[in-house]
Amino acid sequence: MRVGLDQAGVGSVVAMGNTTETPEWGTARSPGISYQELLDTDTHTVPDVLRLESPYYEGSADFGKERYTTREYHEAEKRDLWAKVWQYACRVDEIPEPGDYYLYEIAGASFIVIRATDGGIRAYPNACLHRGRQLKDYDGHCSEIRCPFHGYAWTVDGDLQDIPAKWDFPHVEAENFKLPQAKTGVWAGFVFINPDENAEPLEDFIGELDDHFKVWNLERRFKQAHVAKVIQANWKIAQEAFSEAYHVNATHPQIMPYLGDTNSQVDVWDNFSRVITPGGTPSPHLGDQPSQDAMMRAMMDVRHDQDSPVTVSEEQSMRAMGAAGSRERWREMAGDMVDDMSDAEMMDSLDYTLFPNFHPWGAFNRIVYRFRPNGDDHRSCIMECIFLAPYGPDEERPPPCDIHWLEEHETFTDATELGMLGKVFNQDLFNMSKVQKGLEQTWKPGVTLSLYQEAKVRWLHDKLGEWVDG
C-alpha cells in the first residue's frame, strides 16, 4: 500500500489492490517543519522534482537477520541479484577510446568493460575460454585481449584472433569461440552492465529516475575524487547507514544544529527511492533551538574558541546565506546557472538510490555512493564515495581521477580529498563492523524499522524479496 499526503501533511490512504489498511504513523512525520514547508521559504524557484512526494508503507514486520549473516543468503544474492540486475560499473570517460577497459568485480565475478572499435561499450566475463585464466588483472588499454597463460587472443570486439599451435585445435571454431558478452547500457555518463541476457532494457529499469535528474545533468560532470575502502560488514549494513538520517542524533551529533535529520522527506518509486535531508535547519531532536549564527558555525565546523568567517544575525536566514555562499563557490565551475538554482539545491542532501546499490545525489552535492560485496565474502564489503563535479561551460572535461584505495589501517580522514566528509564517514565506520557482530550474536531473529524515517531501508529489503529466492 502507498500512502499519500494531503496539504496539511496528514496521512491519507491510497488503496493498492485489495488493501485498505491505514498506516500506523500519526498525523505528522516529526515535530519539526516539514520539508515541503521549508521549500516554501526558498529565495529561488524550487524545481518541480523536489515538490514530488511518494511515501512508502508496506507494513511494520521485522525482516530476518540472515540476510546479513548467512552464506546461504549471499549465495542467493549471487544467483538471483548480481547475476541478473543492472549495476553501475564505471563512467563513460574512464574508457574513452577503443581498447580502453575497466575491470568491474562483483561477488566473485569479474568483467572487462571495454570500448569497442565502433565506439560502443562491451562487457566480457574476465576469463579465457581455453583454460579459464583471468584475462586482465587491472584497468588499462589494449590493442587485443591476450591470455597471459597460453596466448589465446581476441580482438577488443571479442572475436577470436589467435590460437598458438592452431593445428592442435581443429575442434575450436572461431565463430563459436567469441568472448561472451553481458548486456551494457549508459545513463547520465554512467556505464551499467547486466549479466542476464534476458534483462529488461536499462532505460526501462531506470524509469522515471531519468526525469528526476534532467534538471541536474550528471552527464556533464567529471570524476573529481574516488575513494574506496573495505568495510568489515555486509554490503547492506554499509549501504543502510546512508539510507536514512535517523541515526544522526546518536552518530553525528555535531551536525544536528544545522541538519534537519528527522525532518527528512522519504520517497519511493519502483526501482529507485530517495531521502531528502534539509540543511540550514536544526534537528527536531534539539530541545533548545540554536541561533542562526550557531547553525552557521556548526555547518562551517568552527571551534568554540575561533571567530567565524561569516556572522549571521537573528534577522537573517542561515539557510539562505549558506545557499548564497554555495552559489559563489560553484560559480567558477558551473557558471551563472547557479543563479537559477534554489536554496534547497544548494543546501540539502538529495540522496537517491537506484536498486540495488547505486546512489547518485542530486544538484551540486557531487556525491555518488556504491556498496558491493568484497569479493566472495558476505561479511565484508567495499564502500566507494565518488565526487562528480561540474566544469566550466567553456572548458573541456577534465580527466577522471584514479581510485584512492584506503588501506586497512587508514580511515576516511586519510582521504583528504573528501574534506569534512571524512570525519562524518569515520563516525559511520565506527558502527558498521559492530552492527555485523551484533547481528551475529543477537537472540532476536529480525531487524525492526521505523515506519517513515527508515522506509528507504524497508524498500531495499522489499525489493530484495522480489529478486532473491533466499
Describe the fold and architecture.
The N terminus is likely disordered. This protein has 13 helices and 22 strands. About 40% of the residues are buried. The protein is an alpha+beta fold. The radius of gyration is 24 Å and the shape is globular. It is about 25% helix and about 25% strand.
What topology does this entry show?
Blueprint: E1 2-5, E2 11-14, H1 35-39, H2 48-51, E3 63-64, H3 66-69, H4 71-82, E4 87-91, E5 100-106, E6 109-115, E7 121-125, E8 140-141, E9 145-146, E10 153-154, E11 160-162, E12 183-187, E13 190-194, H5 202-206, H6 209-213, E14 222-231, H7 235-240, H8 248-251, E15 265-268, E16 272-277, H9 292-299, H10 318-334, H11 343-347, E17 349-354, E18 358-360, E19 367-374, E20 377-389, E21 404-405, H12 421-441, E22 446-447, H13 455-467
Parallel strand pairs: 14-21
Antiparallel strand pairs: 1-2, 3-22, 4-13, 5-6, 5-8, 6-7, 9-10, 10-11, 12-13, 14-20, 15-16, 16-17, 18-19, 19-20
